[in-house]
Amino acid sequence: MNRRELLVLVAGAMTAPRGLRAQQKAMPVIGFLSGTSAGASEPVAAAFRQGLSEAGWVEGQNVMIEYRWAEGRYDRLPALAAELVDRKVDVIAATGGGDLGPRAAKNATSTIPIVFAVGGDPVELGLVASLARPGGNLTGVSVFAIELNPKRLELLSELVPQARVFARLVNPNSPNAERIIADVQQAARAKGLQLHILRAGTEGEIDTAFDALVQLRAGALVLHADPFFFNSRREQLMALAARHSIPMISGSREFTAAGGLISYAARSTALYRQVGIYVGRILKDAKPADLPVQQPTSFELVVNLKTAKALGLTVPPSILARADEVIE
Fold first, then answer.
1. Which residues are within 8 A (CB) of 320 and not within 5 positions of it... i.e. 6 or more apart?
2. E strand spans, the chain
3. Under 8 Å between Cβ of 122 and 291
4. pTM for this model (two decimals)
5. How many whole angstroms separate alpha carbon 304 and alpha carbon 258?
6. 3-class secondary-structure state, position 142
């Protein structure tokens, strides 16, 4: 190319239509903030990306995603949220750690749109003004992680009817620990059950909690739906439950699929798909204040018959009839 041809090419680029130049701008960037780890969160991250694609966005093609994982260390969430704000992402998807992920994002910015997945009531938690009209820069989904705890106790009592002493394992570092304890204690009193609260926020404390559970002669265990248990210590918990022949219910289908006994929870893939849809709509200029907070419409009961057999349990027909999935 000679000098004359180069000048013509440069001049043509400078006079190109504005719309063409606009098409050449950098792709929008999503910040994905999670209280869990990348590996453990892959099913929900995949559901999130599916929702994005339904809204017209595909990672690597017309949108970028910056992932930040707290690995169950909730104290890292504020710094990770600040990183995403400094990165000037276009929208933040904030999940995990009860309300700590969404709250960290909210405290980090009042201008960048935030779509959350939260375990409790987002109005009660102060994240939005109302479910129908969130106001501000936040909206998202509520996964009812806390509200389902009494139901889990009821199911476990039905599965192990001879047990009158139960234990509840709680992560004391969870922001919702005290409310969770109060809700389950009330449910236990209503059913005439004795319930012991055990606390574990480290690997060693989990071992200690199971020693205490055996000494208390608890007949079954309700596991707190917390990322620390489901993601970081899942194998340890299942091994201890098997060693001590303790029937245990969780709030994670993945936990049951990996060898846990029974789980009951909202369908997490459907909820995180909705987070992806909302993020995609916001990238197309929808306002969080105008997008109602979504709530789960379906829940799944999953039973692992192989684990039940290993524990010497016969799963009642009443539970099998209601189960959405039976693993054999």
1. 303, 326
2. 29-34, 64-69, 91-95, 114-118, 138-142, 165-170, 194-199, 220-223, 248-250, 262-266, 299-304, 325-327
3. no
4. 0.79
5. 9
6. strand
Same domain? For 127 and 196 the reply is: no
- CA of 101: how far to CAs of 32, 46, 71, 289, in Å? 10, 19, 12, 19
Using a 10 angstrom Cβ sphere, with 0-12 exposed, 13-18 middle and 19 or more buried, the burial of residue 146 is buried
Residue in this structure with the two tokens 């000048």, named with its chain if needed: 7
- CA 46 – CA 121 distance, rounded (Å): 25
For the record, the structure tokens of 8 come out as 């013509």
Q: Averaged in consecutive runs of 10 residues, what is the pLDDT profile of the chain (328 residues)?
A: 47 46 68 85 89 97 96 89 97 85 95 92 90 95 77 92 92 78 85 92 92 93 82 84 93 86 89 96 97 90 95 94 94
**Is 230 part of a structural domain of the chain?**
yes
The SS3 call for residue 119 is coil
DSSP for 226-241?
A: -HIIIIISHHHHHHHH
Taking residue 201's Cβ as centre, other Cβ atoms within 10 Å add up to 16
Please tell me the total count of domains within the chain.
Answer: 2
Q: Are residues 137 and 228 in the same domain?
A: no
Pairing of strands 299-304, 262-266: antiparallel
222: which 2 tokens? 């309700």
**At which residue do the structure tokens 């990183």 appear?**
83
Q: Would 6 be classed as within a structural domain?
A: no
What is the Cα–Cα distance from 142 to 122, expressed in whole angstroms?
7
Q: Which domain holds residue 191?
A: 149-266+300-327
In a domain, 50, yes or no: yes
Please tell me the predicted confidence (pLDDT) of residue 23.
Answer: 43
How far, in Å, CA of 202 to CA of 164, rounded? 28
In this structure, what token pair is assigned to residue 19? 């719309």
Q: Collapsing DSSP states into helix, strand and coil, what is residue 219?
A: coil
Q: What pLDDT is stored for residue 108 in this prediction?
A: 97
